[in-house]
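Field reference: sequence -> structure
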Amino acid sequence: MDTVYTLFQKAIYGDNKSTELAGNLIKWDIYIGDGKIKLKVFKKINTKWESICTRIENYYYPYKYSSSDFRNNHRLVASSLFNNDDIVILTTFGILIYTFS
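Structure field:
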């Protein structure tokens, strides 16, 4: 629960489309744009980060921009790393939790 509280404390509205979160042995790269969320997971081997997993999710959560215009261009608001290398992401369309195993 502390992680979610911390996430909302870090939430500053902006045009963030990507971020990087690093733990001891796992690093996450997050990109949100073009109707997709792209997650890359890296593992630290010796002193280098090596890509071990990539996940791309399509999302369709359009919002009304004007009386006749709908858009699907959401942004990353904040993100935080759990102790066990899982992440929680706050976007303009909701909160997401991802687990790496």
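Note: The chain has one domain: 2-98.
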